[in-house]
Amino acid sequence: MTFAQLNMNQTLLNAITKGGYSEPTPIQAEAIPHILSGKDMLGSAQTGTGKTAAFALPIIQRLQEMPNVGGRKVPRALVLAPTRELALQIKESFHTYAQNSRVKTTAIYGGVPKRRQIQAIKRGVDVIIATPGRLLDLINMKIFDLNAIEYYVLDEADRMLDMGFIHDVKNITSKLPTPHQTMLFSATLPSSILQLSKTLLNHPIRIEVAKDNTPLDTVNQSIYFVKKSDKAALLKDVLYDATVTSALVFVRTKQGANRLTKSLNDAGIPADAIHGNKSQSQRQQTLKNFKQGKTNILIATDVASRGIDIDALSHVINYDLPESAETYLHRIGRTARAGRLGSSLSFCSPEESHLLKAIQRHIEMTIPVEANHRFKLQRPKSTSQYKTAQQASKTESNDRAKRNKKRAFKHPSKKNKGYKTHARGRR
Predict the structure, then answer these.
(1) Whether pLDDT at 389 is above 90
(2) CA–CA separation, 320 vs 323, rounded Å?
């Protein structure tokens, strides 16, 4: 199938060709005709399947067919995204596809001054890509309203709910006119998303990308059993491998990202960190350096990594295993883009064995173990077993100390002239 067969107009076909795309991905092929026909949609697809184009292309075409008439442009399409990085990535996609049209797009998000965003909206835009918090700020300031919105997209809805945006989403939705077309996209469809979709969507078309489009078939996975205290040294060994041309390293906390970045830089391995405590300009510069290859190692938390889209990423490294088994698929899906193969390495300490068990149950496979490294640790059967072993070791140490103390008591040093024996029966 081609994009022309999806009834894309010539302006969009030219932009698609210029962008280097030859044929639609499965979710694009399924979603575009239904969105063009005005249907509400519930779409499920993993990261890297082309879902941004699946909603951006038909929205741009519909806006081209019925442009704003007279006066200043008012927002007619609204895309909600959970993070600033994803909002900027979506904006770039809209800009690429709409470059030869009069469709104007802007992104609004927190972490930067409002002034430029307000100016862009007042100049007139057709499409707003926004994070929920900043969008509500500007609406409450009466900078603009949502009375003309015709197309409403919630991208990565599962992540929005995970980040606590459910009340903001409902508040924003309540401000939209009736009728409007709604498209909800989510990598996973837990019960919370299905419940939300019932309140937002009107007789939606449901699209799910087949399982063979997940990273499990294109990513070479491996697990390294290692003590928590040896993880940083193991990572340095891994990064010295010439096959690791670029790596996205996931950690659990912002503080952990900073510590690990410093440790790598001190060892002569250039790395940078991206997380929520960085300013927006710092995060954008970090991403730009990584995309341009100026920095090959990026240490990231899960939330901050949303919006990182690198076709040539060679490795994803789970320095800390994720708390959610579904997050594991999000992470490893960052590699193996654009038809390439990729690799994911996961470090598992004994304390994380329960997380590994949940991941393997979720993906329905056993991840191969990499034992060829100098920090090799026998695979722990369970966290409880590890704790029992720790307790046994501690008990043994305590017993040894008691024996040594008893032995010293019976055999006092000759140098201790003042030592008195308190043997039973003596006075």
Answers:
(1) no
(2) 9
Residues 193 and 259 occupy one common structural domain = no
* Mean pLDDT across the chain: 84
What's the confidence (pLDDT) of residue 35? 96
- Least Cα distance to 165 among 198, 141, 134 occurs for 134
Q: Say yes or no: 149 and 174 in one domain.
A: yes
Q: What is the DSSP string of 294-327?
A: S--EEEE-HHHHTT---TT--EEEESS--SSHHH
Determine, yes or no, domain membership for 191. Answer: yes
User: Is the Cβ–Cβ distance between 325 and 361 less than 8 Å?
Assistant: yes
Within a domain: residue 190?
Answer: yes
261 three-state secondary structure = helix
CA dihedral for 64, 65, 68, 74, sign (positive or negative):
negative
Burial class (CB in 10 A: 0-12, 13-18, 19+), 39: middle
Same domain, 27 and 164: yes
Please write the tens of the pLDDT for every residue from 170-192.
999 999 999 999 999 988 788 88
Report yes or no: 109 and 131 within 8 Å, Cβ to Cβ: yes
Q: With beta carbons less than 8 A apart as the criterion, state whether 246 and 313 touch.
A: yes
Structural domain count, the chain: 2
**Residues forming a β-bridge with 364:** none
Per-residue confidence band for 343, with pLDDT thresholds at 50, 70 and 90: very high
Q: In 163-279, where does DSSP find H-type helix?
A: 166-174, 191-200, 231-239, 254-266
Residues 204-233: pLDDT tens digits? 999 987 544 466 777 899 999 999 999 999
**Whole domain around residue 203: which residue ranges?**
4-210
pTM score, two decimals?
A: 0.62
Q: Which two tokens stand for residue 116?
A: 């430029």
